[in-house]
UniProtKB/TrEMBL annotation:
Domain NAD-dependent epimerase/dehydratase stretches: 3-234
Organism (species): Roseiconus nitratireducens
Gene3D superfamilies to which the protein is assigned, alphabetical: NAD(P)-binding Rossmann-like Domain
Pfam families, A to Z: Epimerase (PF01370)
SUPFAM superfamilies the UniProt entry points to: NAD(P)-binding Rossmann-fold domains
Protein name: NAD(P)-dependent oxidoreductase
Matches recorded under InterPro entries: Epimerase_deHydtase, Lipid_A_modif_metabolic_enz, NAD(P)-bd_dom_sf
């Protein structure tokens, strides 16, 4: 299958590329820098210049593609939650940019479209119902609001018959980053290895990047019944305390770990994605 990909140079994008290439797909991906420079690191990917929010770039990416995966995101700083000083520009690039990709894919006859959404659409959880895909989206951040708006557009394109489009909604994604120092929990583990005393009180619902890639691969294999649908993607709650204690055990560190194991307030329902064969390998 010929796959068009946004976000290929990012953390999750690298895991998506590895998964797609191992499955025998051909990948064309956007990059903002010189394609020849990026190609030297990933020679089996066809890199083309492209940026989110540029209509011509979206049209070029959709050409001759069998499927498109939208994993790219414009952010104003190191964190996805950073929106820089111009919220209107942030919204324009991310939300309108996604619309341009959907429309370009539809016009080009792309067979499948998968959008990588986020659990940030559910900052506020209602206590009287399960946290499944039918739960109302109530984000508190502009990041979550943008993701929710794109999910709505994906639903429109899918349910209207314009495009077999679906969203996968991962929680906090972890895994080996490049460089490794940018990996989740890296600094916590490094402090323990150095013998520093640490306080570990945080935690989050998580899923490994390779499992997100597997969920995308499964959606690409489904029939047209996924059109307009959203699929939660979560493995389990991992607390910083759990990671710290494991690091202490493996390194033999004398570090003193203070804190407690954080528990999830709300369980995320993942029966829908498991019904198409998704199982975490972690």
């Amino acid at each position: 299958m010929r796959i068009a990909l946004t976000g290929g140079t990012g953390f999750l994008g690298r895991h998506l590329i590895d998964s797609l290439l191992q499955s025998g797909h051909q990948v064309t991906a956007w990059c903002r820098s010189d394609p020849d420079t990026v190609s030297s690191r990933t020679p089996h990917v066809h890199w083309i210049r492209g940026e989110l929010g540029q209509r011509r770039d979206a049209e070029q990416l959709a050409q001759s593609a069998d499927a498109m995966i939208h994993a790219g995101w414009y952010r104003g700083g190191d964190s996805f939650l950073n929106i820089d000083a111009d919220p209107e520009r942030y919204w324009q690039i991310n939300s309108v940019g996604a619309l341009q990709l959907l429309e370009s894919a539809s016009r080009a006859g792309v067979n499948r479209f998968v959008f990588i959404s986020s659990g940030a659409v559910h900052d506020q959880v209602l206590p009287d119902r399960p946290l499944d895909e039918t739960h109302p989206m109530r984000p508190r951040t502009l990041y979550g609001a943008c993701k929710a708006s794109i999910e709505a557009m994906v639903h429109h394109y899918g349910s209207s018959g314009k495009l077999v489009a679906a969203s996968v909604r991962p929680t906090s994604i972890y895994g080996l980053a490049e460089p490794a120092s940018q990996s989740k929990w890296f600094e916590l583990v490094a402090q323990i290895k150095r013998g520093k005393n640490v306080e570990a009180t945080g935690g989050s619902k998580t899923v490994h990047a390779s499992d997100v890639a597997r969920s995308v691969a499964l959606l690409l294999q489904q029939d047209d019944s996924i059109a307009g649908e959203t699929f939660n993607c979560c493995d389990r709650m991992i607390s910083d305390y759990e990671v710290a204690m494991l690091a202490k055990q493996l390194t033999g560190s004398p570090s003193q770990i203070s804190g407690h194991e954080k528990m999830a307030k709300h369980e995320i329902e993942t029966a829908k994605i498991r019904s198409i064969g998704m199982r975490s390998r972690r």
